[in-house]
Amino acid sequence: MDKKSVKDIDLKGKSVLMRADFNVPLDKDGGVSDDNRIKAALPTVKYIIGKGAKLILMSHLGRPKGEVKPELSLKPVGARLGDLLGKEVKVLSDCIGEAVKAEVSSLKGGEIILLENLRFHKEETKNDPGFAKELASLGDIFVNDAFGTCHRAHASTVGVTEYL
Fold first, then answer.
1. Counting CB atoms within 10 angstroms of each CB, which of 45, 78, 102, 141 has the fewest?
2. What is the pLDDT of residue 1?
3. Residue 3 in contact with residue 9, Cβ under 8 Å?
4. Which helix (H) or strand (E) holds 138?
5. Are 64 and 48 in contact (CB under 8 A)?
6. What angle do CA 127, 132, 91 make, to 5 degrees?
């Protein structure tokens, strides 16, 4: 199996779907209390947007078990990532669906979208092929930058590779 690095690919104008590990602790006010995992993704994020790609980030936060739990939203993560980058990171209200596709299609090179918590959908942890295919449809290229989640056979780590 030939594994390529993101540096082996011409990214200009491409939509890059990147799995990150933004499963970070939040404080009692809902803010990020430890941003080390967000900082760990910065080199890859900066490289991708620096090459003129449209970046679609996806991650999970906590274990909502297929239910939408506002306290496990990725909004604080997006805000912290935006602060670290000095640019806007738009956090969507879902990770699949027509509204998500519309937002992704309106992205310009160098812009970033963070999809909402993947685990708000039970299909993520079940590696559901339909869910994986819908995630994969958002990008031209898949980058797995979430080493800490590679051991899990989830839709966003394993399933999407069947389609991208």
1. 102
2. 52
3. no
4. none
5. no
6. 110
Q: Are strands 112-114 and 89-91 parallel, antiparallel or unpaired?
A: parallel
Q: Are 77 and 114 in contact (CB under 8 A)?
A: yes
Provide the whole-model pTM.
0.93
| Residue of 142, 146, 148 lying closest to 160 (CA atoms) | 142
Note the pLDDT tens digit of each residue in 1-25.
567 788 888 999 999 999 999 999 9
If we measure between CA atoms, which residue out of 70, 64, 116 comes closest to residue 90? Answer: 116
Say which amino acid occupies 130.
G
Which run of H or E residues covers position 103?
helix 98-105
The ranges of the chain with pLDDT < 70 are: 1-2, 148-151
CATH superfamily of 10-162: Phosphoglycerate kinase, N-terminal domain (3.40.50.1260)
pLDDT of res. 147: 73
What region, left, alpha or beta, does residue 52 occupy, with left being phi > 0 and alpha being psi -120 to 50 degrees? Answer: left
Residue 63, judged by CB atoms within 10 A of its CB (0-12, 13-18, 19+), counts as exposed
| pLDDT score for 151 | 63
Tokens at residue 157, please?
């780590």
Q: Give φ, ψ of 161 to 5 degrees.
A: -70, -15
In whole angstroms, give the CA distance from residue 41 to residue 47: 10
